[in-house]
Amino acid sequence: MKIYFASDHAGFELKNTLINFVRGELSCEVEDCGAFEPDPADDYPAFIAAAARSLASDVESGLESRAIVLGGSGQGEAMAANRFKGVRCALYYGEAPRKQRDAAGRELDVLSSTREHNDANALSIGARFVSVEEAKEAVRRWLATPFSGEERHVRRIGMLDQLG
Prior knowledge:
alpha/beta
């Protein structure tokens, strides 16, 4: 699976660490869409758009790929990525203080549910909110979690794709 990475200056160091982790330990193909230097005056939308545009193209072509984008809070990066048709970017700040439960009472963790229920194909990480080890574990879990394929989730994703 190919993973597109992008960040602003605040996520630059963590992005580079995660690229090496995903390429080395997880054996995924990686494309770095920038930033390519830690410039405090950079504008994240261009870097995030490059990753999201590539992911959207893969979605349209039926290719399985994902994107991981990083910023100080990850908020703007998620907003930018979600502007592209077919991109479903979830935001991650770290483990939630409480577990959530589904209608059947099954305990869910918020990160895995973005994959299981929403088939998120992009993950935005708030680099100022997680440690390197937390980010690595989150990426490992997120990439390993499959979409459930349940009809209600497929239907809702189809509805999302028709918005805008």
